[in-house]
Each structure stands twice: as structure tokens, then as C-alpha cells.
Amino acid sequence: MVKRSRIVAFLLIVLVLGATMFGTTENVMKKIKLGLDLQGGFEVLYKVEPLKEDQKIDDDTMSATASALDRRINVLGVSEPSITIEDDNRIRVQLAGVDDQENAREILSTSANLTFRDVNDKIMLDGSDLEEGGASQSYDETNQPVVSVELKDGKKFGEVTKEILAMAPNNQLVIWLDFEEGKDSYEAEAAKANPKFISAPNVNYQINSDEVMISGNFTVEEAKELASVLNAGALPVQLEEIYSTSVGASFGEEALNSTLFAGMIGILAIFLFMILYYRLPGIVAVVTLSAYVYLIILVYDWMNAVLTLPGIAALILGVGMAVDANIITNERIRDEIKKGRTIKAAFKEGNKNSLSTIFDANLTTLLAAAVLFVYGTSSVKGFATSLIVSILVSFITAVYGTRFIMGLWVNSNLLDTRPGWFGVKKKDIHDLDEFKKDKYLPTRFDKWDFIKPAKKFFIFSIVLTLIGIGSLFVRGMNLGIDFSSGSRIQITSDEKISVDEINGDLKKNGIVAQDVVLTGNEEKSVVVRTKQVFNKDEIAALGTYFEDNYGHKPNVNTVSPTIGKELAKNALIATAIASIGIIIYASIRFEWRMALPSVLALLHDAFMIITVFSLFQIEVDLTFIAAVLTIIGYSINDTIVTFDRIRENMRLKKRIKTQAELNEIVNVSIRQTLVRSFNTVITVLVVVIAMMIFGSESIYNFNFALLIGLVTGMYSSILIASPLYAVLKGRELKKKGTLKTYKEKRVSSDQPQV
Fold first, then answer.
1. What are phi and psi of 334, to 5 degrees?
2. Going by fewer Cβ within 10 Å, which terminus of the chain is more open, N or C?
């Protein structure tokens, strides 16, 4: 008897979920903060240096500096800035959505150290003489904007003006902001059209007042800004800019729109594939995958997280990972139906057999993501955060959510005589009694032998590895500025860009380019790399020049030699730790003969990405490391799924006496998991290819690295790791003569043991 109430419950769940998503998603999306790469803005990493020779940089100094920077940002009116103290002497500032980036950088980096000096650069008054919060914007007698500053001691100012007056005709009181000892001087600056000092008024009489007017041809806004910065206080240290990223608002908007569009295409393609291939379970998977996407958005809102461009890529890739769990479970259920089990029994057995595989596969990827989070910076840390959230949420929705919803259909009894709703043809269903003995379910790949040609694949991979090593020695890697130091300028225009024209612009600005590369199908964007490291003034000048000539502010990234070496070191450490962690986990969960091929396979995949990037001299940046570590997680996924089936089939066999028997078990296991491996890679590849074609240009190399890794990952899991295990296990067989693949139960007895 069909229990219609369960089907009604399913329809109500879909209806409520759909209505909730439709009614709330837009509002939730508006609350999520976008990173600077999606709305424009800049990120800068400062190295904190002592202001005086005897000054020590300790925790209190770092906290005071961060507080001073926060007060500066309040002057800018930027909402929800990010100020992070890193290591012992670094502070990272991220300001997304700031309108005037050049002005913001100037306000942040200025020490706001106001000094009054004579013409010989002797300090007469400094910031310690100012009343706290005593600066304000005002007007002089000619109605020009000035800054009014309140002093602590009016008598002291009277003595200063008396001393300056005595120096006539050099009776100027020079007002400086951030005077640099040994570098700046009144004599040198006075000869310039635009001197560095604010003003140098003549002192014609002694002034006994606690209020001073600072004039300097200010606009009203400039006077208000200077007053606010002075009230915020001088920085207790010097700041050296060692890394910066500047993103124009138009770049951010275009990146957001193109990436979301690409993600929608990829996800819709996955939905269509799941429905066409898996039928009813595919429809259920679409429901739970939709719930997954919605939950991810909610979690981001609850976390008050910042969504970055690589973060969106991780969320979209997470859909592919969630699909993997559905595919593993659905393939297991289909196998059980083909063996002749009832729909209910097949559903129960399939879910039970797939759980450990899904758990192992997700945990290894989670390990790689955690390492990325610890050692990553900025956008890479955002990618890792998104990946971790994606893994956790996908496990809940794809395992428990799918099991619950599919259980409503299975327990309704409607499917009892409808195996076709699972995509299983009646002619493929066997008698269950056949599988009580040592017999495997036939597949469409039964004529394929993966062990016999194994040596050829081993040799092929060794040759590719040697080519890669040779390329690294001869050509090396095309390291981006993230690892080699320098600057990267991305220029966008509404019209087609000419390389010759750009070269002319670079020459005018005194830039020696390492390379100039046109990007995009319409060649309206160009990327310039140079070994020059620009300071904030040079970045501001470049922004003004290219905006005037091309209509858009350029994206400018700068990396100092120190930070470049550090990023490269951290990237190697992250890769090593992720690999070691996976080795340990695989050894515990499986035997070492499975752990070793697993690690060799994932290193093979990672090195294949490196080989391709070296051979074709594709630029390597921080997101490349994220891609490599992601592929390490994906690669071990494929291998674990196959090894899990090998282990299961060996336990069914119980005893193995010949190499032929061992090879057959490995062959059968590969055949049984081949559809899952192929379908999983296809679904993720669809997303990656959509991101490459329609997504943002700035993460193209990231997606290309994933593409290489996904293809080589399936190749190595099937044709390298599994055959290599057969070789290693064969040696154990040769040594022992017979392999027992099951645990013997202890025989209990009440008789005394002697």
C-alpha cells in the first residue's frame, strides 16, 4: 500500500524550502560583506618600524598603532574595515568600497606628526604641545579655510614667536607634517613650487595665545580632513608598506557579475546532469544541493564573513563536492538494486556502504583547506574559509539531508516495483542468491584490464615527471609578484588596447616592464609586470594617469622582496604539511601499501600542474597554491573511493593465493567505481570550465590549474595508485604465500587454558 502522506511531506518540504529561499535570499545576500576584489578598495600590509632609535616594538605599541589606524579610518568614513596585527611587527589593513584610494592611503600612512620649526629646521613645538582633540576647521579674516589648533600652553607659544621674531629677516615659523630628519629641510623645500611643508608664515610680533591658525591654501574638505587626522593623533611608529593590492570599483563589479554568472551556468549544468542520469535520486540531489547553496549563504551571514572572489569560486566548487557524495551514494544504491535487493534494502545497504567513503573523502579535503587557512593570506584565506564551510555544509546536506528526503519516497512504498526511477533497467537486475557466493556485479567495463598495461602508465608518468623536472631546471616557473617581488598593473579600457600604446604610456611613467600581456577575448584589458616596487605616491600618480587616458583606475599590486620570499616559503610549508597529514591519515585508515600509492598519486597530480605551468610559462600567483592544495584533496578523494572498494572486495574474498586473484580484485574494484569517478570529475569540470569561459579573468589561472589537476587526478587514481597497490600487495603475497583478508573471531571456551 502506497503511503501518500510521505510523498505529500516531500512536496511540502520542497515547497517550504523553495518559498523560504525565494523570499529571503535577496535580503541575506545584501547583508553579506563583499571583499575589496568584488567592490573595489585596497589592502596594504605595513611593517612597523621604531620612530626613535631606542624605541621597542612590543604588544602595547602594536595595539596603539592599530588603534591609531582605526581612528584614521573613522576619518575616512569607511564601514567595517579590517585591521589585523600579524606576527610581531606587521599590521594588515583592508578597506573595501573606499572611494578615494589614494587619499585613504595617504591618511593611513602619514604619521600626523605636526611640528613647528624655524628656518634652520630646529623644533620649536611638536604634537605633545597640542591639546588633545583641539584641532578644527575654521576660516581666517579673508574667509579662507584654515585649521585651528589649540595649544596646551599659550605662554610657551609666546616665547617661541618671540624667538622667531628675533631671527628677522628669517622670521618664518615653518609648519611641517611628517618632517623626516636628515632628509627634509626648509632651505631645499622653499625653492620648490610645491614645498612639502604646510606653510611658513612670517612672525611679525609676539603672540601670547593658546590658539594657532594653520593656513595652506586648503579647500574646506582638506582643512576638515587635516583637523580630523590631527585629532586622531600621531602614529607612535613608522610604517613601511611591504605589500599592497589596489582594486578599482569597476574591476570589482565586473568580477562579481561574471563569476556569479559562470557559477549559475555551472550549477544549472550539474542539476541537469543529475536529473537526467540518476532520475528521482537526481531530483532529490537538486533539492539538497539547492539547500546547500542557501545554507552556505546563511552561514556566511551568521559568521559576518567577507566574501572574496576566490571565496565565490570555492563555494561553487563546493557544489561539485556535494554532488560527489550524492553520486557515491546513488551508485551504491543502484548496485544493490542490480544485485536483486528490494528498493528498501538497497537504499539501506547503499547508504551504509557509502558513508565511510564519503567521510574519508571529505576529511582529506578538509585537511588541505585547514592548512590553506593557517598559512594563507588575504584572498587565499578567504578561499580556505569558503572551502571549509562548503565541506561541512555539503556533508550535512548531501548525506543526512538526501537520506531523509529520499527515505520519504522509499518508505512510501511507491518505488517498490519501479527500479527505473533510480535509472536501473529491469534486464540488469540479477537474482540475489547469485551474490551470496564469491561473485561480483557485472559492469560495462568488464573487458577492461587496468593492471596488465600498468607498466606503460608508470613509464608514461615517469617520462612526464622527468620532462617537468627538466623544464623547471631550464625554464623555471613564471613567478608572479607574489613570490618574486615587484608590481603588477592591470589596465582596463572601454576600447581595444594596443600593446604599443601601453608601452608608450609605461615609458612616460618611467616604468620598465618585464612583460605586457593582453587579456580577455576583446583585448580590452592588459596586465603589466615590473620588478619596480611602487610607493603610495607612485600608485596614486599611476591611478590618475590611466584613469584620465583609459577611463578606469588600474588595479595595482606591489610586493616587497621580503614579503615575496616569505609567501614562497609559506606556500612550500603549506603543501608539505598537507601532504604529510594526508599520508598519516591514509596510513591509519588503510594499510601503508595503500597510503604510499595515494600520496605518490597526489604528488604526481600536483607536479603535473607545476609541469604544465612551467612548460607554457603561465604566471604563478597565490591562488595557484590554493589550486594545488585543492587538487591534493580532490586527488586523494578519488583514490580513497577506489581503495575503499578494493578493501571491501578483499574482505569478501577472505583468502588470496595468487597474483591473478589479487589483480582481479583490483580490476573489479576499479570497474565498480569507474562510473562514480567519471561522473564526479565531469560535474566539477563543468563548473571549472564555466568559470574559465565566463568567470573573472583574475582567477583564470586558478581555474586552469584545477582543470589540469582534475583530469590528472582521475588518471592517477585509476591507472597509477591502484595498480601500484597491486604490485606492493603482490610482494607481500609472494612472501607469505596466502593472504588472509578478514579478521578471525576468537574462539571462546570455558575450559582452562594451558
1. -65, -40
2. C
